[in-house]
Amino acid sequence: MDLKDLDKEKYQAYQTRGRVELEGPSENLIEGAAQLEEGWAAAESGLPKLMVILVIGGLVGVVVAMVIFYRMAVNPVGENPKSEPEPVVVVELNFIERSTTGEVHQAVQEAVRGFMEAKSNVERCRYVLDGDRLKETMDEFYSRHGSASQPQGFGEMRKPEPGAFEGEAIMLALAVDRSGKKAWMYSLFPRGDGMKIDWETSVSYGEYSWPRFLREKRKEKTQMRVYLQRLPSFKATRKLPTEADAYEVTAFGETQIEVLYVAKESEVNEALQAVVPEKLKHPVNLFLSWNEKGELQADEFIHNLWAAPGRKKNE
Q: Within 13 Å of residue 295, how many CA atoms lie on the same side as its CB?
């Protein structure tokens, strides 16, 4: 084969698959060209399958990535997907809890002075706990008891003492009027940025006066608004029964004290033990009566504020 024929065969090989240069004898060139034809034919026949596989693989990858991204967005790493965020409880402090002792005493005196200097019930209601609700009751009470039940101006006040009602801190204040002859005990609750007088407690608003109740010794149970204080056994006027607890009972503005014995396992005693502090007098509304032996007895516990049973402590 001369040079001319060789060039012709090489040209044919280039035309068959121009991507590759083939060199060598003509037989090898022809055989190489044939192999190239077969290889490229096989490659071209498998190309659609490869593309399908690549496309499917790509779609699967995209879906998996989207799922992972969504789960991380909804439930960040380290969080339980089933858990819910716990609500943040903000405890609001009342006036006594967030104020100094001096500020509390000043607020107590301002409320007591304002109440005692008031010229009308409308004015008094400004210093009274739930005053709007009590306006008519105050009108009825003062018209029934006359001016003797009304403080005649503010004289002076003793240092307020702490008390408690259903776990809430209150203040007890003793003040005398301008004449210096009449004393008034006030129970005050923290409300807003000051103190409010619990009027029903402070004026001993009830069916019977304490002296009358002690004098008549009614056997019928009578609703009484009184102060109770736990009485240690060594202070009891008689031997304290092992199955009973003792309480000192008195009323606002009164000096007469009676001892009340209540069976330990009774519902009344359970209620009293829950509300009467260890060392403080506490206002309680009870049904009281006298038994055949002339002893004071508690028939029923109503509630621990001298008010209507439906009244809420924050009203």
A: 12
d(CA 181, CA 194): 28
- What the block records as the tokens of 21 is 């240069």
Cβ atoms of 230 and 216 within 8 Å: the answer is no
Q: Which two tokens stand for residue 225?
A: 């608004």
As beta bridge partners, residue 225 has 285
Question: What's the rounded Cα separation, in Å, for the pair 87 and 224?
Answer: 44
- CA torsion sign for 188, 189, 194, 200 is negative
Q: What is the pTM of this model?
A: 0.47
For 135-168, write each residue's pLDDT tens digit.
988 888 788 666 666 777 899 998 898 887 767 8
Check whether 90 has a pLDDT greater than 90: no
| CATH level 2 (architecture), domain 210-303 | Beta Barrel (2.40)
Contact indicator for 36, 20 with CB cutoff of 8 Å: yes
Give residue for tokens 């209150």.
Answer: 170
Asked if residue 305 lies in contact with residue 285, where contact means CB atoms within 8 angstroms, the answer is: yes
Helix (H), strand (E), coil (C) string for the chain: CCHHHHHHHHHHHHHHCCCCCCCCCHHHHHHHHHHHHHHHHHHHHHHHHHHHHHHHHHHHHHHHHHHHHHHHHHCCCCCCCCCCCCCCCCCCCCHHHHCCHHHHHHHHHHHHHHHHHCCCHHHHHCCECCHHHHHHHHHHHHHHHCHHHCCCCEEEECCCEEEEECCEEEEEEEEEECCCCCEEEEEEEEECCEEEECHHHHCCCCCCCHHHHHHHCCCCCEEEEEEEEEECHHHCCCCCCCCEEEEEEECCCCCCCEEEEEECCCHHHHHHHHHCCCCCCEEEEEEEEECCCCCEEEEEEEECCCCCCCCCCCC
